[in-house]
Protein 1
Amino acid sequence: MEHELVGLAGSGGRWRPVAAGPFTVLAVALALLPIRPVWLWAALIGAVAAVPWLLGALPDARRRRPRPYWRLSAAGLERIGRGGLVMTSYERSRIDGLAITTGDGVLTVFHRFGRTAVGGLTAMGLEPLAVFVTARRLGIPMHVLDGEATDLLDPALDEALRASGLEDDIPGSGPLPRDHAAEKRLLDQEAALLAAAHEPPAEPSTEASGDGSGDGSAAGRPGRGRGGRAGEQRLDTPEPLPSRRRIMLLGALTALLGAVMIVRIALDGTSEFGARLAAGCWVLAAIAGVLAARRRLLRAAQIRWTITADRLRVRARPGRRREVQELPAGDVAAVVVGPGLRLDPVSGEPRRADLAALAFGHRLELVARLPAHGLDGFQLAHALDDHGYRVITPGARAPRRPDYGLEGLPEIFAQVPGGRLVVTDGGLGWADAAGDVVLKMPEDRIGGIELLTIGGHAWVRLYDSDGDEFFAAPLSALRISRTDLRDSARRAGLPVNDAEYDAYMSAAFHSAVSTLAAPEPERAAAALPAQPAGPEGGGADGPRDVPARLPQDVTFPVSAPPSPVTAPGALLDATRRSRVGTYGMSVLLCEAVALLGAVWLGPDLGGFNATASWSMPAGLVIGLIGYWLYDRNRSQLRVSSAGLAVVTRRGKVEWDLARDRVGGVGIDESAERMPRLVVWAPSGRVLRQITFPPDLDELRRACERYGVPWGPPDADRPAPPPPEL
């Protein structure tokens, strides 16, 4: 059909074990049974362990049966099962409209008898933009509603599927409500697709690339007003660590080790229960190792893009030619680069992806879904644009502003009209409009005054003599400028700290004097005042406008700017709770190994009780000493105005990042893994992962104190410099 949207679904036929869990339990149970003879016992264990893989290799099991998928066409919204059988159908004539809820991303069908929640867009394998454009091309009214699907339905009905929807890149508060902002973004993208589809063909161009290879012509392909850059450009995701070869080798060695140990136990005899228990443990370890290696191997796929002016070639899985997608450039009107969907490599179900590419044709049909998770969105978008493709990206996100309240402001601040903060008599005070101080804080109560920037505004934090924060407010609410407060407090001898101002003055000083460090004699001579050099060189009565010659080795030594390791900053360590927990896990792991060793080797070392009597204390001592050796050289995070660095307690630098490379520090809430503490680049790419968990409040304060942005970067709106510098 001309307007048809097919949901993302995995293809059948992949070789995978069938019912691996039940057969693993059966193999372990067989290992515990006293079966005679021992060769039959070992053969049964190996046969049962191999049955899932043999079942997965059968032709019937590997037959390519595509998974059920959803389809939106002129016939309506349908779910197609195996063999092309329609499992669920919403006829076009009975659909009054479609709606997407921003809260949970559920697609809802409006009909004459009410509303029906079909399911989450992610679980259906459909993208919001593709559904929006296709439905409007089919003449189906399309709506974007704020809230969840359960808000539109009877609570007694079944709860709709929960999935991530459109709310990720939509501001929570702004000039437009959430649903209006989401619908406006979809309309803007649709308008960009229409402009790309109806743009006149580009004139033949012979613009060459920088290396001179190819002609760079984009003639005969509509959608661009200029010729694409010639040549070929490749974009690859980082190679998996460990590599696929090492993963395969580790899985094979695990299976081989388990088989060898079972054979050894069979040769030694299985009359005792301890030997059979050890065999069961080896069976479980071997099968679990092979399954884990297979799972890790599926996830360790590397995506490779080959971009030319004539075609796009994307390979998602190495070693499989049928997984290669080739798309001629003439079939592509525009490429939408942004958040999308991808197939889970293990389960084959659609999952959300941080980056994906949707290729639309000249009739606004979805031509292809190109995987791009793991790539840098900045590089991908610019590489496509350089080769003549029209690139459309979602609208600019509203910057994430930190939420800081004013609960700490005393009530007298609001009761005094025209009041302002002043520095008086060696302390701080609150003065009214006439200048009379109505509230005073003596110097002995002030342990420190900290000036910083939060959300683009100047703030002040006050600490008591014990170092605890007791007051924080923006300077605009206190009606005093940053410069006045800093200078007045320093003249009064109060402990004031303005790290951003000091860093700014240091950088300005180094940039001003860096020209004086040049070794040229002319520059050095021009930088010094003229000196008399006798009657001819301009003595007391001679001309003074001729500078005296200086030795060529006269230079002005200028110290290099501080690095993230040497610059003054805050040193953050792992929390005491995490260190104690890691100590406990290390001890428990060593105790578990000691217990298994006593079960396995006990018959050869005098029995289980005798072996456990010395192996358990030895495991305790090894766990404590082993983690102490690691903990005494643990990593610590250093936050300074020059950047970030992770150094060990012995001074070894694991990594460091300059301030201009840091776009943000904070928690990465990922859908596929546990939240982690990461460092982002200004483009939004994760640069480093902080493996140890420092105190988040201390880290946030250190970042605010030294000018390091806290939270994901706002690439669309760069942070301004600290105010009133």
Note: The longest helix spans residues 273-299.
Protein 2
Amino acid sequence: MRHLERFGPGPGDSGPRSSKPGNLAIELSTFVGRAAELEELTGALEADRLVTVTGVGGVGKSRLAARAAALAEPRDGVWMVELASLQEAELVEYAVAEALELTDHTSRPPRQVLLDHLAERQLLLVLDGFEHLVDASGSLVRDLLGRAPGLRVLAAGRRPLGVEGERLFPLCPMADDEAAELFADRAATVLPDFALDAGSLPDVLEVCRRLDGIPLAVELAVGRLRALSPAQLLSRLDDRFGLLTGGGSGALPRHQTMRTAIGWSHELCTPDERLLWARLSVFSGHFDLEAAEYVCGGHGLSDDAVLDVLGRLLAQSLVAREETPAGVRYRMLDTVRAYGADWLEAMGDADRLRRRHRDWYMGLATWCELDWFSPRQPEVAARIEADLPNLRIALDHCLSEPDGAHVGQYLAGTLWFCWVGCGRLAEGRHWLERSLELGAGHPESRLKALWVLAYVAILQGDMAPALAALHECREGAEYSGHATAAACAIHRTGCLALVTDDMPRAEQLLREALDRYHEIGELNSYVLMCQVELAMAMAFQGNLPAAVELCEDVRLVCEDHGERWARAYALFVLAYAAWADGRPDRARELLEQSLAIHYGFQDLLGTVLTIELLALVTVAEGDPAEAAVLQGVAGRMWPSVGLPLFGSSHFNAPHQLCEELVREELGADRYEACLGAGARLGADAAVARVLSGQRTDLRGLLPQQREPMPDEDASGDAPDMRKPAASPTQQGGEAAG
């Protein structure tokens, strides 16, 4: 879960993203009609803190809510949370945190993380597709609104949230003339020469009336214009309208009409199109062609035919094509997917398809773990990010099957690089603990899940569960003779010693782990991290030459294999040594390289560690005010890491030294003012500030009652500041963990 402003567009990108907060997507098609509803909804949002747009599936709730949200301008942005693909109620809080681009490396409950983050912010949260998770969503919204006075929530779903103070905004279908306008706009994308004229207008109006003005139904009908004229559309709709009503006798007429519209489109599909439609319903969110071919091919639909049939579904607007950082991907609208899921169940093939889906994503996770230690590391991070909804479905399927515990343990353990390297510790711990609760029938899978759980818990600063997992892992590894698990257990026990200031024991255990890794021929990112952690233990004991030698070796291995994540931590240790050697310019060069890598991977630990050490280097360069600003940035980030620098005197020493030097240069009042300026600057702006080489104007960040920094005007109120209790090096050990 993320508790940090997102650093950039994605892994491997080097430039900072736009400073405008929020994640609202750019509209890819024209917003047609709904002027009166939009004005009314905008007014409702200004008057009430919780507004819920309700209506039948396909009526345009999501689009109207997104349009109204785009017109709002809260200070801290507009943030969209899409819940339609989420299966578990307990993951709602994680999904909201992820949408807000938060990372939290602690063991704090995700709801508390959200409450802390939103307490002083003014933003609009848009919840879409919550109806299947209404209890969990309503509970969360109730707590957030009660504790975050600057928060407003705009929800879109088929039913109310049921929260006190909720203002309902029922959305009706479009009027005939607006529906016809929508038909014409979308038709022009299919047939560039299409226009409403005296010949086509009556048929178009009648089609829209028969579809009850439901926007999704209109757009589905437009998808048929490549083959049919408006008159033919009307004729075919009339033929099937009474046959394809859905739902029970008590269903709303408009709900029946929506199923009729989709059912009519389904009836017009060829048998292989219907088959692929049903099979694609097992996916959640985006999917790629290779996944579709593996999961959906065979049993009446050859693998080679999937691409052709998928293209036909794209032409009918039943599947959408999207460009993503992970490449071209596809997605079904939730209503269309749900219709296909009903057909898949009716065919009796749902269980087989879910197993195929699980097997594909287990294979994907295995491939990504291997490729994490390669030049494709940024691609792996982007791929995992894109496929996370489907990986969640696969994990849930594994852990819901009577004999699936070992498969779930395998999958949760294999994704260690996602939980640790891509800033998802809290979610990783959720899946690891859930999988380990289910049994111990397959030692190899369980042992891996145990040491990964210990890894995650150490990074969260939660030592007791880490010790328990390591004890079970080491005993199980010795009993079963599993050499890799034994080495990993020793490695993580060494990390515990490192972050709790027992440097001799840390050195002993980490050396033993490295020896075992070498004996079994193990070489990957976490083996290199073991070497970096050993270098930290050596540095803390005063042996900087040995630490440098170890990290130079790591850097060479990383360059040979194209590995970047472990390299970033090696660069940190080398920068520390350069600073200690009186070469701040070299230390800054190394730290900027390290920060750029952490920036791309969303690694909060590495980022805050690097910023802390940059503060100390900045003092050595003669700019104590800038050093204090960087400490303020780090101070804002540390509460999301866990125990401040693990309470370690070794890890805290660089931070304390930096603070002493800066206080001596600036005085207490100005130091506090610069800390406040850094906290207001935020991590995103701070990273851009460092990587651009330009120290941005802090005008407006320093409080009026305090002395401004040179060449800056002071303005604004100073927030209450929590002094950063952590040190850069401290998190270095964490990073090493």
Note: Residues 1-18, 239-252, 704-737 have pLDDT under 50 and may be disordered.
